[in-house]
Amino acid sequence: MKHPAKRHIPSVVNLNTFETIARRGSVTAAADELGLSQGAVSKQLLDLESFLGTTLFERNNARLALSDEGAAYLARIRPLLDQLEAATVATSGAAQRMREVRFSVPNTFGLLWVMPRLSGFAAAHPQIRIHMANHIGIISLRDAGLDAAVVFAEDGLDDDSAELLHSVRTLPVASRDLVPGRLPLSAARIAALPLLHHTTAPTSWASYLRDLDARIELPLPGGTQYNLVTFALKAAEAGLGAALVPDYACADSLRDGRVVQLNRPSLPSRRGYYLICRRERIDAPAVRALCDWLRARRTEPADASVPA
Q: In a 3-state reduction of DSSP, which class is residue 71?
């Protein structure tokens, strides 16, 4: 029987066979469980008994009963086998963890920008599993048990790992039915439309129109408020008003003609979506692969399709 040099330890395979025979009560039942022949199981038991120099079972016809020495030995090695199994599973789990990424994204950006880019990642890295979650606002990777996340920030992030993934520029859009005339519209003409507001950015229309024309008169007319960008966009498509939405959110609607762009995008700023990684996991192969993939697919702010 093979056993480690310099350690008086029998083969783990033989120990497992011994425990199985004791639990099942016969060589035949143990062989069925282990997927081995009865001869192989009997040999492993004999090898173990030879190594120990004692008899572990008393043979009574076809039935095996533990000897006193066998019962005492089983009581001592069974918990050790359990510990060895637990340690092995834990280590195997750590290896599996190296092939997993726990990743969180903001709702709308995750749905419209991140998710379309993950199909290519999945094809290129079939061995990596991504556990997706969503969040609102700034998030603590450690507290949330995350490896990486995309977060929105108005003016950058005080985080060494933070890297701008997508700089947001907002576009004024509306249904062509609402604005049948010539484009682009002046700031005054846009201000006269029913304006759809985002609850988390209530002054966005005022800021945009003032940047477009410093002479614009404020306050602006009131309008319906939506708490999700996608709601405001769908309302604009339905002709309910003009919406000021991020470039990534309205790209498909513009391409398909469901809305038209009323004037140029908002001015560039540090507003955008930042990729952050947990320091302890930043060099893990799966995390690095995902972050590299997303970085490679960063886009510059959308180009204006309507002249200023």
A: helix
SS3 97: helix
Query: Which residues lie closer than 8 Å to 99 by C-beta, 6 or more apart?
Result: 127, 128, 129, 285, 286
Query: What is the structure's pLDDT at 2?
Result: 54
Residue 181: how many other CB atoms lie within 10 Å: 7
Distance CA(86)–CA(116), nearest Å, equals 39
pTM of the model: 0.61
Element (H, E) at 59: strand 57-60
Pick from 203, 184, 202, 304: which is nearest to 247 by CA? 304
pLDDT digits (tens, 9 = 90+) for 160-215: 778 889 988 899 999 999 999 999 999 999 999 999 998 877 888 998 999 999 88
Unique residue bearing structure tokens 């997706």: 132
Does position 305 have pLDDT exceeding 50, yes or no? no
Strands (E), 199-298: 225-226, 242-246, 260-261, 272-277
d(CA 246, CA 250): 7
Long-range own/partner contacts, residues 225-229 (CB < 8 A, 24 or more apart): 225/196, 225/197, 225/198, 225/199, 226/196, 226/197, 226/198, 226/199, 227/198, 227/199, 227/200, 228/107, 228/108, 229/108, 229/198
Tokens of 35: 């997927």
- Convert the pLDDT of each residue in 1-49 to its tens digit: 555 557 889 999 999 999 999 988 889 989 998 999 999 999 999 999 9
Cα separation, 14 vs 40, whole angstroms: 10
- Judge whether residue 300 has pLDDT over 90: no
With contact defined as beta carbons under 8 Å apart, do 287 and 148 qualify? Answer: yes
